[in-house]
């Protein structure tokens, strides 16, 4: 078996009195696709955001490719990392948002070039070449010089995926990448993600697309009430769920 | 599927528009359709009334001897006045640049996570917005009465180098400092308003991409904040340009002061006030044009299709007029023409 790429260990997180994550464990191996399902408010987004330290954990820890995220360990102590070091760690972790969050004042290619140039200090010409290759890969080579608002939602999300890929991350995190899209645009975005899955990109995908989970996931993770209720291969979790809560959820969404 | 409640006599698909007996007749060739533009009689009457008033006013301006246009002509481009305009421009430029620099720093202090920086910035804005500019200017003018010497040294410790404060800053320097400190308080709020208007997701995306903090602000936040900052900033700069006229209390040879000096000598108050007015109007107009193009630049990506510049719109208007002239003998306008003029 290949090495563990993302290791979430006993992660807890509260917002004020509300405990959103109550000790979550999740392990994703290199090249694997984990699909996270669960009802609204179960903590899926929060979990994803702790993986790249957009959300600080209150307990437990997260590591990516063996590197502790947001902290440095010395003996039995965890030292909080400076923002600069956290930013460096984030360049190894791609994040795709539900509502794209493209930079509207930059062209598509500038959106893709910005982080490699400023965070990884790549030469601009090289970054631009990579950007155009990635745009071709997501089928948007002809939109390189358009502004995001001139694109459809599906096209914007594909640009956002290419922007995350431009940093050559070790893992890609998707937070409901198709939820803001019209139904007829969902397919084109899922196709891009499926293509990434085929080429062995490690991914954690939060989604409500059960069909996609069945087709692409190596592991399906079902969350509810801030804990992982059940996880396993799609055939097991989706077709023969062992827990009542999983069954109840699936009967509602299927 | 079938939502009609009437007798299901019509088979599905037969209810196409135009097929029923009550539907309006549609000609075979849509290009033959003509559109008659709506006539706005009330609007035309109001425009005519206003035009008469404006003409009357312009006539009075040109013919009433009170305005003394010959005196105006003699002074408007005189060396003293042109020099004074230059001083006004310099005061405005320095106070704008320095005021907005300091204002931007204050805005980000206010937005920072440090309570100390927040408090300092808040207090600054509170103090300098509370003091009338003229009071503050006189304050700086009399600086040497407060601090006879300014020095460089260790805080609360020995002073290594010092200088007589009035000779260091001079009168113009005092005016620039006064204007800058005043302007910075307002600029801080303008910039802060622009920054908080930027969608939070933008910073989050930048952070998720690992873009360095300063670069996030310079490259992602500020350009987008500019859209909200610029209209207010334009107001502020125009206000500052006219506000420089209060430094006349410090006997600085800016536009308003020189106009006063001249009419104090020759008693021609009205035409010299007109000279000052004309210059302020010209300078403000130039600023407005500049503002338009700067705003346009920062609007990149905000619209799917950017609106045409006034110049291009003017050209299009001329073309439209020509097109209309060609159509004049016809009482109606073809559809295609309306489409073009949009
Ligand atoms: N910054 C925050 N401050 C306070 N409460 C928050 C914050 N972020 C999330 N929450 C709360 O945490 C809970 C879990 O939120 P989260 O976004 O992780 O849910 P989710 O599983 O992603 O739901 P959805 O499917 O609707 O996106 C919700 O009750 C939410 O209101
Ligand atoms: Mg969510």
UniProtKB/TrEMBL annotation, chain A:
PROSITE patterns: ABC_TRANSPORTER_1, ABC_TRANSPORTER_2
Subcellular location: Cell membrane
Membrane topology of this protein: Peripheral membrane protein
Keywords per UniProt: ATP-binding, Cell membrane, Membrane, Nucleotide-binding, Transport
Domain ABC transporter: 6-250
Catalytic activity entry: a polar amino acid(out) + ATP + H2O = a polar amino acid(in) + ADP + phosphate + H(+)
Keyword Transport assigned: yes
Protein name: ABC-type polar-amino-acid transporter
Species in which this protein is naturally found: Streptomyces minutiscleroticus
Classification of source organism: Bacteria, Bacillati, Actinomycetota, Actinomycetes, Kitasatosporales
Automatic annotation (TrEMBL), chain B:
Pfam families tied to this protein: BPD_transp_1
Keyword set includes Transmembrane: yes
Superkingdom of the organism of origin: Bacteria
Keyword Mitochondrion belongs to the record: no
Membrane-spanning ranges: 41-61, 81-109, 121-141, 269-294
Assigned protein family: Belongs to the binding-protein-dependent transport system permease family.
Annotated stretches, region: Disordered: 1-27
All copies of domain ABC transmembrane type-1, residue ranges: 85-291
Protein name, UniProt field: ABC transmembrane type-1 domain-containing protein
InterPro entries named among the record's database cross-references: AA_ABC_transptr_permease_3TM, ArtM/GltK/GlnP/TcyL/YhdX-like, MetI-like, MetI-like_sf
Subcellular location, record wording: Cell membrane
Sequence ranges of Low complexity compositional bias: 1-21
Record keywords, A-Z: Amino-acid transport, Cell membrane, Membrane, Transmembrane, Transmembrane helix, Transport
UniProt-recorded Gene Ontology molecular function terms: transmembrane transporter activity
GO biological process, alphabetically ordered: amino acid transport
Record GO cellular component, one term: ATP-binding cassette (ABC) transporter complex
Membrane topology annotation: Multi-pass membrane protein
């Amino acid at each position: 078996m290949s090495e563990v790429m993302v290791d979430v260990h006993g992660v807890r997180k509260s917002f004020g009195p509300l405990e959103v994550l109550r000790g979550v464990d999740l392990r994703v191996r290199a090249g694997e696709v984990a699909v996270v399902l669960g009802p609204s408010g179960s903590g899926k987004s929060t979990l994803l955001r702790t993986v790249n330290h957009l959300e600080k954990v209150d307990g437990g820890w997260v590591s990516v490719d063996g590197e502790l995220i947001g902290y440095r360990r010395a003996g039995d102590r965890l030292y909080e990392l400076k923002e600069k070091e956290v930013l460096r760690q984030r360049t190894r972790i791609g994040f795709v948002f539900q509502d794209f969050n493209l930079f509207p004042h930059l062209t598509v290619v500038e959106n893709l070039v910005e982080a490699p140039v400023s965070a990884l200090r790549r030469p601009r010409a090289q970054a631009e070449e990579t950007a155009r290759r990635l745009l071709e890969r997501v089928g948007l080579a002809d939109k390189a010089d358009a502004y995001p608002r001139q694109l459809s939602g599906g096209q914007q999300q594909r640009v956002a995926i290419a922007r995350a890929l431009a940093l050559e991350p070790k893992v890609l995190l998707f937070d409901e990448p198709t939820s803001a899209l019209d139904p007829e645009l969902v397919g084109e975005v899922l196709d891009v993600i499926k293509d990434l899955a085929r080429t062995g990109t490690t991914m954690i995908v939060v989604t409500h697309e059960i069909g996609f989970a069945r087709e692409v996931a190596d592991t399906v993770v079902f969350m509810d009430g801030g804990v992982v209720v059940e996880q396993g291969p799609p055939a097991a979790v989706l077709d023969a769920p062992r827990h009542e809560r999983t069954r109840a959820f699936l009967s509602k969404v299927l | 599927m079938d939502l009609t409640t009437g007798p299901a006599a019509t088979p599905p698909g037969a209810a196409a528009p135009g097929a029923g007996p009550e539907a309006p007749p549609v000609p075979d060739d849509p290009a033959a359709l003509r559109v008659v533009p709506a006539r706005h009689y009330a609007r035309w009457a109001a425009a005519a009334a206003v035009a008469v008033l404006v003409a009357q006013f312009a006539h009075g301006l040109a013919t009433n001897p009170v305005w003394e246009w010959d005196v105006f002509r003699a002074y408007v481009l005189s060396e003293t006045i042109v020099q004074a305009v230059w001083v006004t421009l310099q005061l405005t430029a320095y106070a704008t640049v320095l005021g907005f620099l300091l204002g931007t720093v204050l805005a980000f202090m206010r937005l920072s996570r440090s309570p100390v920086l927040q408090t300092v910035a808040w207090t600054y804005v509170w103090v300098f917005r509370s003091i009338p500019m003229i009071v503050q200017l006189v304050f700086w003018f009399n600086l040497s009465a407060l601090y006879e010497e300014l020095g460089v040294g260790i805080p609360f410790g020995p002073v290594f180098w010092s200088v007589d404060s009035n000779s260091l800053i001079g009168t113009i320097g005092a005016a620039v400092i006064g204007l800058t400190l005043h302007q910075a308080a307002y600029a801080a709020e303008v910039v802060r308003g622009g920054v908080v208007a930027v969608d939070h997701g933008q910073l989050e995306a930048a952070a998720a991409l690992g873009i360095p903090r300063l670069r996030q602000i310079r490259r992602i936040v500020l350009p987008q904040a500019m859209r909200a900052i610029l209209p207010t900033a334009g107001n502020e700069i125009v206000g500052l340009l006219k506000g420089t006229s209060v430094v006349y209390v410090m006997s600085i040879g800016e536009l308003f002061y020189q106009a006063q000096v001249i009419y104090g000598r020759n008693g021609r108050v009205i035409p010299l006030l007109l000279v000052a007015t004309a210059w302020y109007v010209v300078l403000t107009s130039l600023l407005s044009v500049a503002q338009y193009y700067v705003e346009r630049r920062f609007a990149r990506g905000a619209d799917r299709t950017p609106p045409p510049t006034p110049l291009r719109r003017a050209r299009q208007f001329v073309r439209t007029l020509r097109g209309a002239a060609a159509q004049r003998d016809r009482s109606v306008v073809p559809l295609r023409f309306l489409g073009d003029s949009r």
